[in-house]
């Protein structure tokens, strides 16, 4: 479980940071196009893509912190 949380947290953090960079560079940074599908296909997040990507990155960091507190199993 600990390893899964570490990997999921790392991936969410990378996706969130890449999404913020992509939004701030106006789509020029296309390395992680997956973030576009996470934020643009949800009507509630329209116009709030930077905020959504920041939240994704923070959730990833929280998962990595929680993984340190979970016992290895």
Task: Considering the chains and any ligands shown, give keywords for the structure.
73 residues; mainly alpha; 0% strand
Structure explained in plain terms:
It is elongated, with a radius of gyration of 13 Å. The relative contact order is 0.26. The chain has one domain (about 1-70). The chain starts with a helix and ends with a helix. The chain is built from three helices and no strands. The longest helix is centred in the N-terminal third of the chain and has 23 residues, at about 1-25. It has helices at about 1-25, 35-40, 50-70. With about 70 residues, it is mainly α.
Q: In brief, what are we looking at here?
A:
The chain has helices at residues 2-24, 34-40, 49-69. The chain is mainly α. It has one domain (2-69).
For the terminal residues, how far apart are their CA atoms?
6 Å
Overall structural domain count: 1
User: Compute the gyration radius: what is it?
Assistant: 13 Å
Element-level helix/strand string? HHH
Q: Looking at the structure, what is the overall shape?
A: elongated
The description of the largest β-sheet is: none
The structure class reads: mainly alpha
Helical region count? Answer: 3
Number of strands: 0
Low-confidence stretches: none
- Residue-averaged pLDDT, rounded? 86
Helix content: 55-70%
Strand content: under 5%
